[in-house]
Amino acid sequence: MRHLTNIVVNDACTFGRKAPITLMRSPAIWKTSIAIIALCWGCSTAVPEYRQVSGEIMGTYYRVTYLHDAPVSSAQILSVLEDVNAGVNLYQVDSEISRFNQWPSDSLYRVESDAFRQNVDTALQLYHLTGQHFNPAIAPLVYYWGFGHDRKKITEVDQHTVDSLLRLSEFTEIMVQRDASGRIVSLTKGSADQALDLNAIAKGYAVDQVSEYLKRLGIGHYLVDIGGELRAQGTNPKGRPWTLSINKPDIDASLTDSYALLQLQDHSVATSGNYRNQYSYGDSLIVHTINPITGYSEINDLLSATIVAPDCMRADALATACMVMGMAQAMQLIDNIAWAEAYFIFTPDGITQRDTMTAGMSDLILP
């Protein structure tokens, strides 16, 4: 999703400490103590404690907090993230999505990486679920409005160009071939100028991949945070659900300015908003949310959409779709999805800010 950090961790980590050992000076006790130490030297076990590893990836930060009896290899977590980058990072010229976007229309493209395959597959599902309001095939329009690689801002809006790019943005014009198990094996473009932009789902996918890696290590308590998209599993260092802050949807708000607090356990959360990634065009404001129905930069009454879901990938995509739809239509969408909950910050008059949420989300928002 193309936005800066929207959710920040509210609870600090606490780390375990070993108590000092004091040996008494009686010779008999000295001998007994030495014998016990000798017997237990090879069978001592480490005490689980909350640990943290962090760094930078995909143009943002990542931070992983977890409970374990030994440090998790930071190199291995970075390797998981680099696999995602290699599949879906638009800003990496040798990534698979970059190769596909340069592929001609008269040739079958054979999908290589699981990252690219799974992102395209889930994107197709969300494309249909949201009534085409989530559409990664709008890459040509994203570039046109100044949110591509070169960040070249528009100087004049041309309706003919917008209409032409809108026709290129039909996701169903990219033919998908699957094997007998339903796995995507190849793609074929209808036009060489068609291109995909999976940024609105890739960070959520990266969160899910790191989470799966931690599960394979037997870790049951952790918080994975990549640029404000999060997965909270188990409990925090205080033994409670993880407490997260939903950022104020103001252009001047800092990343720690909180609008609401959310308690989360065994679920993922993603937020989308237009209040950071924007620029002025004459008397108008151009925001990074592009409406795949109209082809234009979309500004409506919805300022921020926070989605809770079982996985971060779908939460990420739904948050983007909601920002395109506006508050009323977005609420109707989420109310009809059994596995998702939503918290919306909106403006009824363009000035004041109000919030509303689905019934299930009210159990998660702290008073």
Task: Give the averaged pLDDT, no decimals.
Answer: 88
Query: In CATH terms, what is the fold-level topology of one domain?
Result: T-fold
Query: How large, in whole angstroms, is the Cα Rg?
Result: 24 Å
Low-confidence stretches: 1-44
Task: Explain this structure.
The structure is a single chain. This protein is 29% helix and 24% strand. With 367 residues, the protein is of the alpha+beta class. It has helices spanning 27-40, 74-88, 96-101, 114-129, 139-144, 159-168, 199-216, 312-325, 327-335, and strands at residues 7-9, 49-57, 60-68, 109-110, 175-178, 184-188, 222-226, 229-233, 242-247, 258-264, 267-273, 278-281, 284-287, 302-309, 341-346, 354-357. It has a domain at 90-188: Orthogonal Bundle (T-fold). The strands form 4 sheets. Strands 2-3-7-8-11-14-15-16 form an 8-stranded antiparallel sheet, with helices on one face. The chain has a 3-stranded antiparallel sheet with strand order 1-9-10, with no helix packed on it. A hairpin with a 7-residue loop joins strand 15 and strand 16. Helix 4 (114-129) crosses helix 8 and helix 8 (312-325) packs antiparallel against helix 9. The protein is built from 9 helices and 16 strands.
